[in-house]
What does this fold into?
Amino acid sequence: MQWRAVAVIAASVPTADRGECPEVETLAALHCGMRQPTIGLLHPGAMGAAVGRVLRARGLTVLWSSHGRSGQSRARAGAAGLTDAGSAAELFAASDIVLSICPPHAALQVAMLAAGFDGIYVDANAVAPATARRIAREVGSAAMVDGGILGPPPDGHRDTRLYLSGDRAAEVGALFRETAVDARVVEGGPGAASAVKMAYAAWTKGSAALLLTARELAAREGVEEILVTDWEQFSPEVLDRWRRAANSATAKGWRWVGEMDEIAASMAAQDLPDGFHLAAAEVYRERGLG
Ligand SMILES: NC(=O)c1ccc[n+]([C@@H]2O[C@H](COP(=O)([O-])OP(=O)(O)OC[C@H]3O[C@@H](n4cnc5c(N)ncnc54)[C@H](OP(=O)(O)O)[C@@H]3O)[C@@H](O)[C@H]2O)c1
It folds into this structure.
């Protein structure tokens, strides 16, 4: 692996009143003295809507596409101040930068909608590095920026980290300068940002699945009460962790199945055991859908 340390974003978001324009042909240069970039967001889930709200607070126009989406997405988009572009095609036609923030299992399908788009396409989903590189090929004429989001949706209290990689990663990072989204560029091209996300979530969600399974074993063997008492006495933090894991798995387990599959694929691609996360996918499949 050749990926080097991350660099904190230093570029600035394009503004309409800048005195000096950059000479290089970046989005900032294209829009210098003209207008701010229009952002397309697919789709306003818990994370997407919160990221959209951050960009709206910077004065940017953020479009979303209501076609096929639920009432919950509509409500989140409305609350975040996003503008409905109608179809995905209309969104791409009107956007300079499109952010894909959706369930990992849908990332490739959403990327297919970018056919003919020649702006910047950001896939910020929890996918394997190989999936991110495939998306880079699929988006064709667009400039692909790979993204990986760590932490909770930005809410003004807790920070969210957005890793970005790809030739135009700094331009995307500039959109978030001095916001609750801590954007950082990772060198290494598409796949590098996703690799950070995969390694991070391999531990957080992988270990959560293990904890759920450990207690389930005790329950099925009729010794759950003894295990819980021992957790309380010897490692109370484990019990607290179990509670959080159980709540999250019930609420988001359906989405984490795809994420665990992507982590397993990431492991296999580096000749590492993929069984941990295939098993974690199984745990979340039962928890989230059962
Ligand atoms: N939430 C977090 O705390 C968090 C933290 C770190 C990273 N992330 C990343 O953010 C991404 C999205 O997570 P989220 O929490 O925002 O998910 P979410 O709340 O479940 O929202 C998912 C959004 O995608 C749409 N969607 C669902 N199924 C789809 C499909 N098959 N095709 C296209 N769109 C679909 C949903 O629309 P409808 O419901 O209207 O169908 C919704 O707008 C994931 O890649 C995740 O790894 C999230």
Q: What stands out?
A: The CA atoms of residues 14 and 31 lie 6 Å apart. The pocket of NAP is lined by residues 43-48, 69-70, 72-73, 101-104, 106, 109-110, 125-126, 149, 152-153, 255, 259 (CB under 6 Å). The two ends are 39 Å apart (CA to CA). The beta strands are 7-8, 39-42, 62-64, 83-84, 97-100, 120-123, 143-150, 160-165, 181-185.
